[in-house]
């Protein structure tokens, strides 16, 4: 038997979100019922509500930065109990059988993972995300939020945090390494915090110096404006790793020129339109152009434990659900420092 749950949904592409009621499935043997306390607003929510990344499923309940409390567990659940502090990120299932799933890289499931929203579950029903009061998720796709992390500032870690932690770890950010973060927004500010905690020398590359004071407080050692052509002259051949968090097309050649020999430019921002590249930008210097998409479940738990150990949470602005549409416009205007989080009690 399904359970009616209050939520905020977009009824159609590009339509404002509105309060509605959705049905959550019955708690199965391996399921966890979570009372959602907070849900972050990710730029990808806006891309999908507005079909910027292609055709989508409506009505759509966005939200894949979910923090809450377990209120019920299925009969076969072993990892969680009522009262546990938990999180749900960008996926709620995968095939579990392919080489990527078996390697703990469920986000790269060969058959395609089941996204937390704008997806179709194994039961054939559309998935609805965290802009709601409750969610039912298989325990294998739920992570534990350590006691040291407040739930509101922990919620954005379930996407923004793991999206930056994974490439920073994969490409060796640490002591003796020079790392640049492109963009100081919801993703970028987490990149600065995590790269600093990993021990790297951190530079922010932002369009302007408007957020310089913030960047330095968050842990950056240096801060440069990319609107100044001198930046690219001065920093040529400087970095071991650059992580781009921006969702607008970049001049990739210009950023690749900032890498050392064998350096890597890793992209986690996803522009809606294609970008062009002169391959000599990577051939010269043996450089790598890479991508990264969130992280697996085990790595997400590792990230949360790392953030708890280093006192890292997102910088947030807590809002009521009635402010979601306004928040979307402010995200598009870069008018948030640095992540909107919905208080689910207001849904």
TrEMBL record:
Keywords: Metal-binding, Oxidoreductase, Zinc. It catalyses: a primary alcohol + NADP(+) = an aldehyde + NADPH + H(+). The keyword 4Fe-4S does not apply. The keyword Phosphoprotein does not apply. SUPFAM superfamilies: GroES-like, NAD(P)-binding Rossmann-fold domains. Its EC number is 1.1.1.2. Residues 15-342 form the Enoyl reductase (ER) domain. Its cofactor is Zn(2+). Belongs to the zinc-containing alcohol dehydrogenase family. This is alcohol dehydrogenase (NADP(+)).
């Amino acid at each position: 038997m399904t359970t009616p749950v209050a939520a905020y949904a977009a009824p159609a592409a590009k339509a404002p979100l509105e309060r509605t009621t959705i049905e959550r499935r019955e708690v199965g043997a391996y399921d966890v019922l979570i009372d959602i306390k907070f849900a972050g607003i990710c730029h990808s929510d806006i891309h999908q509500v507005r079909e910027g990344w292609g055709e989508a499923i409506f009505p759509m309940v966005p939200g894949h930065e979910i923090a809450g409390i377990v209120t019920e567990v299925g009969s076969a659940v072993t990892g969680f109990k009522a009262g546990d502090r938990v999180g749900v990120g960008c996926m709620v299932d995968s095939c579990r059988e392919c080489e990527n799933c078996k390697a703990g890289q469920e986000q790269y499931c060969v058959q395609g993972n089941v996204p937390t929203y704008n997806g179709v579950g194994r039961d054939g029903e559309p998935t609805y995300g965290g802009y709601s009061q409750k969610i039912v998720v298989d325990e294998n796709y739920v992570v534990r939020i350590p006691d040291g992390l407040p739930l509101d500032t922990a919620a954005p870690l379930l996407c923004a945090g793991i999206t930056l932690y994974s490439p920073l770890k994969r490409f060796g950010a640490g002591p003796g390494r020079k790392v640049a973060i492109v963009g100081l927004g919801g993703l970028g500010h987490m990149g600065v915090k995590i790269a600093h905690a990993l021990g790297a020398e951190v530079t922010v590359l932002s369009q302007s110096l408007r957020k310089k004071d913030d960047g330095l407080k968050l842990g950056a050692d240096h801060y440069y404006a990319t609107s100044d052509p001198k930046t690219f002259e001065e920093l040529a051949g400087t970095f071991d790793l650059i992580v781009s968090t921006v969702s607008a097309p970049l001049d990739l050649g210009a950023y690749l020129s900032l890498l050392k020999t064998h350096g890597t430019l890793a992209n986690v921002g996803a522009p809606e339109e294609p970008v062009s590249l002169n391959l000599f930008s990577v051939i010269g210097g043996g450089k790598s152009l890479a991508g990264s998409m969130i992280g697996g479940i085990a790595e997400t738990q590792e990230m949360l434990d790392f953030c708890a150990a280093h006192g890292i949470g997102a910088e947030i602005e807590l809002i009521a659900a009635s402010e979601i549409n306004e928040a979307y416009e402010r995200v598009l205007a870069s008018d948030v420092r640095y992540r909107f989080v919905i208080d689910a009690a207001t849904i």
